[in-house]
């Protein structure tokens, strides 16, 4: 990761506004009404190019693809991985238990893209080509572009498990390791492409006072070590940044 001793390098969290025409295509795709995905792929390709130029023209030093082709920063993996089906559920630690009236009040205003099926079968890749397509779009968009760094985002295993609940694996630990084994392929591909990997893991902060509120600090630290032990051992961790993104 590049550093500066003369000024602060500027960036952003990862997601940037999508054009309405592309949002309409994404919605149709999520509803299963998009018979020809080539129109969506073309729209994403063009939108990534536009958003890269926008970041550079705005003076940002560290840029990305704005997550243009994704429905959000976590649950998009449900469409790329096997094992996820069923009704949508709130993420673990969303406050439903403590404030059920507020949760019910806000439910009608939830993003139409925030469908969160549970894990009901073995996790594996069924559409790794979409990750490769994201990488190719960003590579094409940054040709000839002057930027200090280029990054791509990906959710951590813990964050995925928080949004897509385990109903298949014998334990949450087994589920985390399964997610880590699978997602490691995406993490490695991003780093091997020459990009910074921004690993989105708000679960590190949110889970302390929600999911693991009953644990001691020592036991919580063991939980965090378990989350990070395996997926990040096979590539250059100096090209990985961790964000507590909400």
Strand content: 5-15%
Q: Into how many domains do the coordinates divide? A: 1
Q: Main β-sheet, in a few words?
A: 4 strands, parallel
CATH class designation: Alpha Beta
Instruction: Please identify the structural class as seen in this structure.
Output: alpha/beta
Quick one: how many beta strands?
6
What's the helix-strand series?
Answer: HHEEHEHEHHEHHE
Instruction: Could you tell me the CATH topology label.
Output: TIM Barrel
Low-confidence stretches: none
Second rung of CATH, namely the architecture: Alpha-Beta Barrel
Shape: globular
Mean pLDDT over all positions:
85
Strand order of the largest sheet: 1-4-5-6
Radius of gyration: 18 Å
How far apart the termini lie comes to 23 Å
Q: Give the count of helical stretches.
A: 8
Helicity range of the residues? 25-40%
